[in-house]
Structure formats: structure tokens, C-alpha cells
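Sequence dictates fold. Below is an illustrative record:

_____
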Amino acid sequence: MIVNIPKQSINQLKKALENFKINDAIELCTNEAQTRKFLIEPFFNFLSYISSDLIPEFNADFGERVSQKIDYAILLNKKETILIEAKKYNSKLSDKEAGQLNGYFSNTKNSRIAVLTNGIEYRFYSDILQQNVIDAKPFFVFSLINYSDRDLETLIKFDKRYIVVSEIIKTAQECVFVEDFEAALLKELIAPSKDLLKIIHRNMNFKTKFNEDTQGKMIKLINSALLKSLYEKKVIDEANSNTGGIITTESEIQAYHTIRTLLIQNKKIPSQRIFFKDFKNFFNISIDESPKKLICKLVFTDSK
């Protein structure tokens, strides 16, 4: 079941987070209990959960196993369970803490989502790769001090009014698939296999024998400079296919990459938040694809 989330709800969540006096809350957090009270519980309040929804010291056990208590659990429709493991503010969230969370997760029926948090960072896990075992990496991470509009669009899906676990699991599956694809592709690009080289060679118009010399030449060609060039061609191709006849030029792409690099290096803005949009008479660069976060409007004298 797909739920249509009103844009107004996303804006309300954004406003609530912006109005949250996080620095005041942090000053009060000297231990785990205070972290729960002043950071974690308010976070879930923003997602429409009230105090009675957060079950403290939840028994994460079944059968004859020894009882294990996790910090919080949220019961959805008295069937599905979200587990929440809390750590003291500023604690480093490591594999050790994730392993502890997995112990609770594997002993809890009807749980597909688990959260590990230190009050600022919220790591959302599921069991995509192996049933009843949380994946090594979270499928979504939200930070109270560094988030984008896209992060908010994902976070609102966990809101009590809109949450559909099956849909979130689909999102998690997609994240795992994309991550595995990127890892496999990177592995091939760093050390191209003979099978990959053979496929590329077969599609080349310039025909040569597929021998060790040819393979060696091809491997040398697969470098960062070539990949950057291909990436820029791909960006232009995608931009031109989605702009209704507006042609994005190489000059515009070069300007985008220059400004993007400056924003990353000098303003510490994550690269995935920087976007461009081409128009007939100008070229915009913005943050989070938001008109309200416009960085610059470029006008090129060259005709498009």
C-alpha cells in the first residue's frame, strides 16, 4: 500500500526541526537517560509518536531465550515492531553497537526495522541480505545537524501517520541493490575482468585480435580521466533528454563542476545536494533542487 504524503506534512516536519533548540538540548545531555529525554524522544515526537508509543525497556526475547531489554520499541498496529537502541550523546556509533542491536533484532518477532542512535545521528537498519540479521550498513541515516530536503522526504515515511513497513523495506532493498551495484561496478573499473574487456572489445568498430596486448591497452585506457570524460558526456546527454529541447552545453557543465567543487571544498556542502537546472536563457545551480536555495544564475553569451 502506497501512502500519498502531503507536501504540507514535510514542511511541518522541516519547520519543527528548524525550531528545535538543539544546542540547548545537547547541553543537558550528560548521560544516556538525558539523551533519551532531551533528544531521542523529541525526535520521535516530530514523527507524530507520543510518549505511550515508545515502549521503554522492551523485552527482546522469545521462546526459552534469556530476556534482553532494548531501550525502546514502537508497536505498529500491534503487529510490526520498530526497535530503538539509544546511546549517550556524542557516542561513536560503531560495528560493536550495531552488533548489540542485531542481538535484540534477531530475538524479536515481527521486526523488520531497527534504529541505532546517539541522539543526533539516527541509523535505520533492516534485514535485507539475511532474514533476522540486520545488514552491516544502515539503509538510511539521518542527522539532526546536517540534513537535506531529500532526507526529510525519506524521514517523513517513518511518521506514525504514514508509515508502511512493506514500502520502507522496498526502499531499503533498493538502497542495498544500488550500493551492491556501485561496489561491483567500481571493482570492475579498478581491475577490469577479462569478461568485461571482451564485451567492450566486441562492441568496438576498430577490430583487432583479442589478445594480451589488446587487453593491456584497454586496461590502461580505463582510468579516472576517461571516466570523468564519459561522466560529463552522460550528464549532458541526460540533461538534454529531459529539458524539452533545451541543449545543455559543455561550457555550462564545466561551470557547474567548477562551482560544485568550490562549494564542496569551501562550504563543506555534500556533493549529492548540489544540482543544476538548464533553462532557455540561463543556467541555475542550487542546493537540494530548491529555488529558495539558489546559489547562482549563469547567463552564457553563446547561443544554445
Q: What stands out?
A: The chain has a mean pLDDT of 87.
